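explain this:
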Amino acid sequence: MLERLKVPVSVATSADEIIIRRAHADDARRLMELLADDPISASRGDIADDSDGPVYAAALERVIADAANDLVVAVDAHGAVVGTLQLTLIPGMARRGSTRLLVEAVRVASAQRGAGVGGAMMRWVTERAAVDLGAHLVQLTSDAARVDAHRFYERLGFVGSHVGFKYRVPPAAEETTT
């Protein structure tokens, strides 16, 4: 958990206000649903199947326990979790020892898209969270297929400056004892 991150905080959207707070164990099911609510995530296996509950709960626990990471949720006036994102603070040597704030897994419930939730969360990251955490640069990656998301980030002032690469590590073969 990024202890210097000042949450909970109330943030205005274009229609209402949301509360941004740290995710906790009780949010695991809703976080699964937010991932599954996204077609690209769903195509990668994020389908919010009940049998996956323990896997997501364990993942959330690992993120919360990690001093360089935090997972926050956006909660609407009715107390419903309507968005989420993960933050990772990365100390570095480049850019004269600059610290970077990596934003990952930005998701907004489909029923809330276009209502300003994503913009409010990202403005909070760039205006407040980065300052609270001492970051000099906020960066994120976005799947190449997310053309609408790219326009969204550009409207917020992000610049498509790099090409990212991923390598999927094959599952380890089970060891056999003879």
Q: What stands out?
A: The two ends are 43 Å apart (CA to CA). The chain has a mean pLDDT of 94.
